[in-house]
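Working notes for the structural subgroup meeting. M.R. asked for a predicted model of this chain before we commit to crystallization trials. I am recording the input and output together here so anyone reviewing the notebook later can reproduce the run.

Input as submitted:
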Amino acid sequence: MIQPKSLRRRINLGRSLALAAVVFVVGGAASSGCGNSGLVGGACNQGLTNCSNFCVNLDSDQNHCGHCDHACLSGVACIRGKCGGIDEVGGTGYGGAGGDGGHYRDGSAGTGATSADAKGDRVTEFDVAYPTGGNTSAGGATSGGASSGGAAGTDSGDADTCVPPYNDPLHCGDCTTVCPAETPVCAPSAGSYECRPVCDPPLVPCNGTCVDLKSDSDNCGTCGKNCPSGACQSGSCVGVLPGDFVAICMNYRTAPGTPSTQTTKLLGNAIFLPGVPTVRVLAYDEYADTSARQRLDTTIAASAAGRLYSITRVSNSAEVPTLLNKANYDVFLVYEQPNAALGVLSNIGSLWASSLESFSYVGGVIVVLDGGQGVREMPQLLTSTRLFSVDREVAISSSTLLDNRVSTDAVGTRIFTPLTCQDDTCVFETSVTPNATTTFVITEPPNDAGIARPVVVHMTRTAPM
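Returned structure, recorded in token form:
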């Protein structure tokens, strides 16, 4: 499994490659078995080739596929001397467009002819059991034929037992689908499995990790190009400016939306942090509640108080890394996403991580809302972006009086204590503590131990030098 070089700038490939690793374990074992052996009397047995004083089967050895020292990629088996069998167009066996899928354990065509690995034993390759000395096909039928051990082929009663889950690159989604070179990973999809690329677009592989060339400061525009500033935008290194991240545990679904209301002012303080003549907002609403989004938009309009702004919506998480550019937007707003499926928000946060980091390092403002509704996985989204680690959110009563702990903070300015919270208000339980760059602006009242969990957190984001 490929591991990220840096958790700060990389997206882990575990989801895509975990299944492919199974193939590597089984296929790689063929180097010391499956017809390979040491030298005998200074020469290799018939059918084997001397590679660095070791006898190997070039038809099936993953490290010597087709010729010595030609290694297949991790997770790609050597089939009939081809990695994945992908060059056997029109041939029989896996990888052949016109074949019936039959092959022996060494990858040779299962036509009943002798095979170095058809020893008369019942063998299992990945999730497919092969009968003694016979040919296996996609339909599961077998035909007779002598094995190299001299045993006759079995009858149809000992048929191919290709069974689910069909989760390796040689049997991806069904018994006969082999993943080609351009999509070599067999990954879950809609209750089954399908062949996928090593990296899901817009990510590309760079030195064993998946990166976004438009925003990754270690691979900016091309693999290996490092930005001394630590900021990459649209594939080009740029200078840095302090940015902001604001997390608000309110979704504004029941917000009154009047200019004088404290919660309205609070939202306006966050959205208009950039201080530019017209604030350009990119707003993510893929799994948002429609009524909450509409009420939030009304509240933003009320909070503007004559200031100019524009909102552009994006409803596809995969488009965010491409769209989020300081040249086009000043604020990235994330509505609460209560309608997402379980586990989706964490994956989205990982996809966005480097883009959000880069955006904040060039003066961008990121505002994320949470209200403890629906799937309740906004904490997972926040944590996987690496902006703010949250254990969970906890709902509090709308009758709770909140404290403005730092009225000098830009997000807390003009907010009076006590602050009456609205419905769907929550607090963040987090291991993060206030410091020079992290402020707990609005909190619940302190408990007996003096601990006050935050409702609004404001972080100043500065690129590391």
